[in-house]
């Protein structure tokens, strides 16, 4: 598969660690020029260093995906220096877990802003050039929680399910222009974000995974690479579940 | 320099992939030239680029024929020698 993304420009949000970092590495290894975002300048520098360490052409940029003006400015800057992204991976996500009865409005709003609204905005900004080019790949990272639900994650589950609906509607709008829009829905993956779960929660989740192990970031990145690649042109509006059998849609 | 009408028609031909002789002034993008809703949005985007102007959504919705596009652009084109 090496070289199959030669000539592509991949923009990945939330690329400084975890799943996003691995996606950046894998797409880069397959030949794409990579631009990955982090919320802080320090995070962007870590991306630069990581890509360089892996011999991948690319750069990190600081972007708070909830800052509309910054998002527009960053995209304009990318377009000016590298051209228009042909692959967009909306990966940036946050959790603010809390039982509904205790959930603060801010916990709800913050998760919606980062996990749902930013996907809408960045997709809209990027799709214009994709339509013009008659080619594009948008891959939204959702979650098994968006289809199964999970106690303590009403906000997160709602946002991820929202992204799935957005994906299907957008896929219908742009399919005739060879722009595909899909989701990759990880199950329980070993990352910083899932480290935050307590042991009881983790053990209970493990009971539900037929594969008998947690996922690793490479499992998710491989699915993203497939959807980004030249062989997936007829696959659109789908959710590709990567969860060890935890959920079989 | 081509006239506004010629430039509009060129954009229509390129954007909708139709033959030049089909693009009469009276031609409707949807009914005569086979444009779908996304085509019409893209066409407006292409006109904005060609003529370096911004066409507000409520105005864009009223542009349904080649003539209406020519009229809109003629009326709103930034005057280069001003």
From TrEMBL, chain A:
GO BP: fatty acid elongation
- Alphabetized CDD domains for the sequence: BKR_SDR_c (cd05333)
GO terms of molecular function: 3-oxoacyl-[acyl-carrier-protein] reductase (NADPH) activity; NAD binding
Q: In which pathway does it act?
A: Lipid metabolism; fatty acid biosynthesis
- Which E.C. number(s) belong to this protein? 1.1.1.100
Q: Which UniProt keywords apply?
A: Fatty acid biosynthesis, Fatty acid metabolism, Lipid biosynthesis, Lipid metabolism, NADP, Oxidoreductase
Question: What top-level class of enzyme does the UniProt entry assign?
Answer: oxidoreductase
Its recorded reaction(s) are: a (3R)-hydroxyacyl-[ACP] + NADP(+) = a 3-oxoacyl-[ACP] + NADPH + H(+)
Give residues annotated as binding NADP(+): 14-17, 39, 91, 156-160, 189
What are the catalytic residues? Answer: 156 (proton acceptor)
The function of this protein is:
Catalyzes the NADPH-dependent reduction of beta-ketoacyl-ACP substrates to beta-hydroxyacyl-ACP products, the first reductive step in the elongation cycle of fatty acid biosynthesis.
Summary of subunit composition and partner proteins: Homotetramer.
NCBIfam families in the cross-refs: 3oxo_ACP_reduc, PRK05653.1-1, PRK12826.1-2
Family, according to the entry, reads as follows:
Belongs to the short-chain dehydrogenases/reductases (SDR) family.
What this protein is called in its record is 3-oxoacyl-[acyl-carrier-protein] reductase
Give the species this sequence originates from. Acidithiobacillus ferrivorans
UniProtKB/TrEMBL annotation, chain B:
Which residues are in the Carrier domain?
2-77
Q: Which InterPro entries match?
A: ACP, ACP-like_sf, PKS_PP-bd, PP-bd_ACP, Ppantetheine_attach_site
Name the domain of life: Bacteria
PROSITE patterns noted in UniProt = CARRIER, PHOSPHOPANTETHEINE
Q: Which GO terms describe its cellular component?
A: cytosol; membrane
Gene3D superfamilies, per the entry: ACP-like (1.10.1200.10)
Q: Which UniProt keywords apply?
A: Cytoplasm, Fatty acid biosynthesis, Fatty acid metabolism, Lipid biosynthesis, Lipid metabolism, Phosphopantetheine, Phosphoprotein
After translation, the protein is modified as follows: 4'-phosphopantetheine is transferred from CoA to a specific serine of apo-ACP by acpS.
UniProt cross-references to NCBIfam families, sorted A to Z: acyl_carrier, PRK00982.1-2, PRK00982.1-3, PRK00982.1-4, PRK00982.1-5
Name of the featured protein = Acyl carrier protein
Organism field: Acidithiobacillus ferrooxidans (Thiobacillus ferrooxidans)
């Amino acid at each position: 598969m090496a070289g199959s993304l030669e000539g592509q420009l991949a923009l990945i949000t939330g690329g400084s660690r975890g799943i996003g970092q691995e996606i950046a590495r894998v797409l880069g290894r397959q030949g794409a020029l990579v631009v990955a975002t982090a919320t802080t300048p320090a995070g962007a520098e870590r991306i630069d260093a990581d890509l360089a360490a892996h011999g991948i052409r690319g750069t990190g940029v600081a972007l708070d995906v909830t800052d509309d003006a910054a998002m527009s400015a960053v995209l304009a800057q990318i377009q000016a220096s590298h051209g228009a992204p042909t692959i967009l991976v909306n990966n940036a996500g946050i959790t603010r877990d809390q039982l509904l009865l205790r959930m603060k409005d801010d916990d709800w709003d913050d998760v919606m802003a980062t996990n749902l609204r930013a996907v809408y905005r960045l997709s809209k900004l990027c799709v214009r050039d994709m339509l013009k080019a008659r080619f594009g790949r948008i891959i939204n990272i959702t979650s098994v929680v968006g289809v199964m639900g999970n106690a303590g994650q009403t906000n997160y589950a709602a946002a991820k399910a929202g992204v799935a609906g957005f994906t299907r509607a957008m896929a219908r709008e742009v399919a005739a222009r060879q722009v595909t829009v899909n989701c990759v829905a990880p199950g329980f993956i070993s990352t910083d974000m899932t480290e935050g779960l307590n042991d009881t929660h983790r053990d209970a989740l493990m009971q539900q995974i037929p594969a008998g192990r947690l996922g690793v970031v490479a499992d998710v990145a491989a699915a993203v690479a497939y959807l980004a690649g030249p062989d997936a042109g007829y696959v659109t509006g789908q959710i590709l579940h990567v969860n060890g059998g935890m959920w079989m849609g | 320099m081509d006239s506004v009408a010629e430039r509009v028609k060129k954009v229509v031909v390129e954007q909708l992939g139709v033959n030049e002789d089909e693009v009469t002034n009276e031609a409707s993008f949807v009914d005569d030239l086979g444009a779908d809703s996304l085509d019409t949005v893209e066409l407006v985007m292409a006109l904005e680029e060609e003529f370096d102007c911004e066409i507000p959504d409520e105005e864009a919705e009223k542009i349904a024929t080649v003539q209406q596009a020519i009229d809109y652009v003629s009326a709103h084109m930034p005057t280069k020698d001003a």
